[in-house]
Amino acid sequence: MFDKHVEYKYVEPNNYPVLKAVGYAPISLQSGVNKSQKQLMAIKASKLEAYRELAEQVYGQQITAGTTVAGSIAQDDYLQSKVQGIIKGAQVIKAYAVDDTYITELELNMKRVHDLYIGEIKPREVKKVTYY
């Protein structure tokens, strides 16, 4: 049996893309007793919608679909999508209202995500192994 010492070096990607997403929410359709409450709810909804769009870009979408057929006649047709993931490091670039719609624009700089990841996980590869 040999004792060994392993040296690691940190691996960094060659480039870092910047992902962008936009979320929309109708103000008048939100629940609330007055316009201010409805606008606050639309702000939250549009932000969540933008985060959902970022999650789609990062993790993809799971699509489930099916059709029920009885007597050679389509009875039921369904389509369902699901997005699941964690988004860290996104920034709100703009948030504003246009007519009855609230809009939130998000940006996810993958360099920032990488820096957050390095701080937590510290990915590495073997640089050198010395046997004794």
UniProtKB/TrEMBL annotation:
InterPro entries: FlgP (IPR007293). It comes from the Bacteria. This is Flagellar biosynthesis protein FlgP.
